[in-house]
Design a protein that fits this description.
about 80 residues; mainly alpha
Length: about 80
């Protein structure tokens, strides 16, 4: 299995941190934010369940730009063979 060596940027990690501490954030955004923060270290990859969630977020019109930014980061760190 090919390893993805990308990691979350500081800017995206900051957004993820703010998302996790906000009381007005959806559970979906919090899941994505947690994944982004866990991928701040290199050699971490998105699991298949979060890949699916992030893909659905990107295709939907109901999510905010911030949530879509988190989803895009999660997808960019997915396993390239899946």
């Amino acid at each position: 299995m090919a390893k993805n060596t990308k990691k979350s940027s500081s800017k995206t990690a900051t957004l993820a941190s703010k998302t996790l501490t906000s009381k007005n954030t959806s559970p979906t955004a919090k899941k994505l934010a947690a994944s982004v923060l866990s991928q701040k270290a290199p050699n971490k990859q998105t699991g298949p369940e979060l890949e699916d969630l992030a893909s659905k977020v990107m295709q939907s019109d109901k999510y905010s730009d911030s949530t879509k930014t988190l989803a895009a980061s999660v997808l960019s760190q997915s396993n390239k063979e899946r």
